[in-house]
């Protein structure tokens, strides 16, 4: 079939630069006829001059045409897109215009055409992005223009989308979605996936960590507000050239079902490259579980595995450990695919070690007449600035204590009181952290082993490994340790005031 095209001239704006810079229209004019659009097999181009429908009297009683894009109005660069214009059975011609372009196209349909025509873009380019309208002509005249269709091409690296305080919130609680990028993007658009594709656009502002971001308040959530969201960023001078979409974020509303428990099968203090598995479980019999990292990008979901004891659980493997795994986690359970989620588990902090080059030292201070139930003091100190110190004991599920630093005798230090009971026999290490990122810890101190012996109600501290004699009050001495450079882990979280503790009863809690 031989096709002929005649463009109706309009004012021609400056051409947008293509990916390689320069005028994007001139070198590809031949292939960009009709914006690079091709006709469907049942349409032909009307030869000869056709009047612009906006210069003719429009028939008021004609239905407004509908213009849409498949697979959608936001397309990846170099991917095919089809624009559809739907009129009525009486339509004889269709016209497609792009705002700011001097080129338009008029199509006549054949006898077997339906009440719509398609315009194909074989490979989406920067110059195809923009605002489009379509019209149709019937014996009664030209229709009004369709509602505008904004066709967007994506190209910048993707932003991140997160929910504050969490993507799973109790009904009635406010939630804010944060779209952020390290690129200097001027605006961010949030889109809810689904039939209606609701969208919101906000100006960006620069966060104190250097990222550009926009905060979208979603208001109090109810069960019907669940949905999946993505966000995009763009610059004001190219409003139809967007970033790649963020990873999807599913927003869910939790109920009052009993919270599951969240624990780690290893230690919450881990080094990069080690294995880490988080286990979410409950005796309620949930059939699926979700894991969420505070200020993370979304939920990880796993089916629950039932045990003979009536318990169900799901394992979330985060191996090999990376620095980005440091943070605070919660998990949720649900009974079936359509049900709401349970109340959240207690928080669990994962701490990544070896992220501060300095290593603190651990030493002991004690009274030679310490009685059962009284305290031994373990002293963690560093000459390098530390904001807080963390004490761990091998074989325990959670760090024992976390204290804010005290500065004394040109040392940053914290004093950890340890009761003298047989239950506190074990090997201890300490770590330092910086206030700016306290999920990331220093290398561990050399270990100190505490041994308590004796039967009855008054066991005594009989041995401090590496110490020949108990030390006089007020005198500090570093204990010889077994082992050498161990791996540990640190996590990021709010600083703890001196005397505040992290213990097994309140894992991950913050003051």
UniProtKB/TrEMBL annotation:
Keywords: Disulfide bond, Glycoprotein, Immunoglobulin domain, Repeat, Signal
GO cellular component: plasma membrane
SS bonds (residue pairs): 85-134, 179-231
Disordered: annotated segments: 454-511
InterPro entries: A1B_glyco/leuk_Ig-like_rcpt, Ig-like_dom, Ig-like_dom_sf, Ig-like_fold, Ig-like_Receptors_ImmuneReg, Ig_sub, Ig_sub2, Immunoglobulin_dom
Tree of life domain: Eukaryota
Gene Ontology molecular function, alphabetical: inhibitory MHC class I receptor activity
Pfam families: ig (PF00047), Ig_2 (PF13895)
A single GO BP: cytokine-mediated signaling pathway
Residue intervals of the Ig-like domain: 159-231, 360-442
Protein name: Leukocyte immunoglobulin-like receptor subfamily A member 4 isoform X1
Organism of origin: Sapajus apella
Gene giving rise to this polypeptide: LOC116544602
């Amino acid at each position: 079939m031989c096709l002929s095209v005649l463009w109706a001239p309009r004012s021609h704006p400056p051409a947008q630069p293509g990916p390689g810079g320069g005028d994007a229209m001139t070198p590809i004019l031949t292939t960009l006829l009709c914006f690079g659009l091709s006709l469907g097999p049942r349409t032909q181009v009307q030869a000869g001059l056709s009047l612009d429908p906006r210069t003719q009297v429009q028939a008021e009683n004609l239905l407004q045409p509908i213009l849409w894009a498949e697979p959608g109005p936001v397309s990846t660069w170099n991917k095919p897109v089809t624009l559809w214009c739907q009129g009525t059975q009486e339509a004889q011609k269709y016209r497609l215009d792009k705002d700011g372009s001097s080129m338009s196209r008029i199509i006549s349909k054949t006898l077997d055409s339906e009440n719509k025509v398609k315009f194909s873009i074989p490979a989406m380019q920067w110059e195809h992005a923009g605002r489009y309208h379509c019209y149709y002509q019937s014996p009664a005249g030209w229709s009004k223009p369709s509602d505008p269709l904004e066709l967007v091409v994506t190209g910048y690296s993707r932003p991140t989308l997160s929910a504050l305080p969490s993507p799973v919130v109790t009904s009635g609680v406010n939630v804010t979605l944060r779209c952020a990028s390290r690129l200097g993007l001027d605006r961010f658009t949030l889109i809810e996936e689904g039939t209606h594709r609701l969208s919101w656009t906000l100006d960006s502002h620069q966060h104190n960590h250097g990222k550009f971001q926009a905060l979208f308040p979603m208001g109090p959530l109810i069960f019907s507000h669940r949905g999946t969201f993505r966000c995009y960023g763009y610059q004001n001078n190219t409003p139809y050239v967007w970033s790649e979409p963020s990873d999807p974020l599913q927003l869910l509303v939790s109920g009052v079902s009993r919270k599951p428990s969240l624990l780690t099968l290893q230690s919450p203090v881990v080094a990069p490259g080690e294995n880490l598995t988080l286990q979410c479980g409950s005796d309620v019999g949930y059939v699926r579980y979700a894991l969420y990292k505070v200020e993370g990008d979304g939920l990880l979901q796993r089916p629950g595995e039932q045990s003979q004891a009536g318990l169900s659980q799901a394992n979330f493997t985060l191996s090999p450990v990376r620095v980005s795994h440091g943070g605070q986690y919660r998990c949720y359970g649900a009974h079936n695919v359509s049900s709401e989620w349970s109340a959240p588990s207690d928080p669990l902090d994962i701490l990544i070690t070896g992220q501060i080059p300095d290593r603190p030292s651990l030493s002991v201070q004690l009274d030679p007449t310490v009685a059962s139930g009284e305290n031994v003091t373990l002293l963690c100190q560093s000459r390098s600035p530390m904001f807080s110190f963390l004490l761990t004991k091998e074989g325990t599920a959670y760090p024992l204590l976390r204290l804010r630093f005290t500065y004394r005798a040109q040392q940053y230090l914290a004093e950890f009181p340890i009761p003298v009971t047989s239950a506190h026999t074990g090997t201890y290490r300490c770590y330092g952290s910086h206030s700016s990122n306290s999920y990331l810890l220093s290398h561990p101190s050399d270990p100190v082993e505490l041994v308590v012996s004796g039967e009855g109600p008054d066991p005594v501290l009989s041995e401090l490994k590496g110490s020949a004699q108990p030390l006089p009050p007020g005198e500090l001495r570093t204990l010889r340790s077994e082992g050498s450079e161990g791996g540990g882990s640190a996590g990021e979280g709010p600083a703890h005031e001196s005397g505040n503790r992290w213990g097994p009863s309140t894992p991950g809690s913050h003051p």
